[in-house]
Write a structure and sequence with these properties.
Number of domains: 2
CATH superfamily of the largest domain: NAD(P)-binding Rossmann-like Domain
Strand content: 15-25%
Helix content: 25-40%
Shape: globular
Number of strands: 12
CATH topology of the largest domain: Rossmann fold
Largest sheet: 7 strands, parallel
Structural class: alpha/beta
Strand order of the largest sheet: 8-7-6-9-10-11-12
CATH class of the largest domain: Alpha Beta
Number of helices: 10
């Protein structure tokens, strides 16, 4: 079976090198990063049996091939045209955060960003170099309030860990009826501004969609408690970049922002936002840990093997009424 890997950037190739040994009987082919999706070595898209989607896959790619399965290498699937996949009879499956170690890994990075901003880590490191002792004065997480925006697998992992810091916890979630642990005060989605007004930290953990693009624009940022911190370990599309910069410059987000995801990826390292002292940024590494990658690769390998054997993949996000004819069958 031939599987075409649709890369987001050159860095993702290193991840796939670790996956190949788990796929006996399957040949992985590269699509060049930053170019329209196409296989190397002169093979046509019509010769491809399935896609492994790290980068975007649109309708034109689906129509050019006859594959009937697209597997993501991560929890998100906003980079795939799901409507087109469903219409064309293509299964799309993702990797769940729960039970793969991904949710826990992402939660750990969210807390790292919170602590680094609370204790002004860059300033402390500079102080050491300049022999300025016992400075700066940090803020303890103890007794502060964190609002977890999106109480799914990642959000629950964040809340569970922040509870150990003695923080007060609030949250919102798309499906309010699913409830929350007893130690979390849950707000309906439409009361997010109210929840933010009382929070010292807002941690974005929700899944990106067309409905929440730039959710944190000027109005939502203004609703946040003055002096609060914004942490984003979900997707860059949730934040209006210009509004975030304006809020920091205006002194509203006095403690700044911790960002692991961005509006464009790879982000421009020269962007002035990354040079503000109130911003600590990392290159989308929240889920890139030994535990998370092992769990992710296990799910991806199992699903590709299931498809190769003619079985239904797990963790589907599209359920077409009729699967289109595919080379693998």
């Amino acid at each position: 079976m031939k599987v075409l890997v649709c890369h987001r950037d050159h860095g993702s190739r290193k991840l796939v090198e670790r996956l190949a040994p788990l796929l006996p009987g399957i040949t992985l082919l590269d699509s060049p990063p930053g170019e329209p999706v196409r296989p190397l070595e002169g093979i046509l898209l019509k010769d491809i049996d399935a896609l492994l989607a790290i980068g975007p896959v649109d309708r034109s790619v689906m129509e050019a091939g006859r594959f009937a399965f697209i597997q993501t290498v991560g929890t998100g699937y906003e980079h795939i045209d799901l409507a087109a996949a469903g219409e064309l009879g293509i299964w799309v499956a993702h990797v769940p955060s729960a039970e793969t170690g991904n949710a826990e890994s992402v939660a750990e990075l969210a807390i790292l960003l919170m602590l680094a901003l609370a204790r002004q880590l860059p300033a402390a490191q500079q102080g050491l170099r300049e022999k300025r002792w016992a400075q700066p004065v940090g803020r303890a997480l103890l007794g502060k309030t964190a609002c977890v925006v999106g109480l799914g697998s990642v959000g629950l992992a964040v809340a569970e860990r922040l509870r150990a810091f003695g923080m007060k916890l609030t949250a919102t979630r798309w499906n309010f009826d699913k409830g929350a642990p007893a130690y979390v005060h849950l707000y309906p989605e439409n009361q997010l501004p109210q929840a933010l007004s009382q929070a010292d930290y807002a941690v974005l953990c929700l899944r990106a969609s067309g409905q929440n693009t730039r959710l944190f624009g000027a109005a939502m940022l203004a609703a946040m408690k003055p002096g609060a911190v914004l942490i984003n370990v979900a997707r860059g599309s949730l934040i209006d970049e210009n509004a975030l910069v304006a809020s920091i410059h205006a002194g509203h987000l006095l403690r700044g922002a911790g960002l692991d995801v961005f509006w464009d990826e790879p982000a421009d390292p020269g962007h002035f936002l990354f040079h503000l002292p109130q911003v600590i940024a990392t290159p989308h590494i929240a889920g890139v840990t030994d535990v998370s990658l092992a769990g992710t690769f296990q799910v991806v390998a199992e699903n590709l093997q299931r498809y190769r054997k003619g079985e239904t993949p797990l963790h589907l996000v599209t359920h077409p009424a009729h699967l289109r004819s595919a080379a693998v069958y």
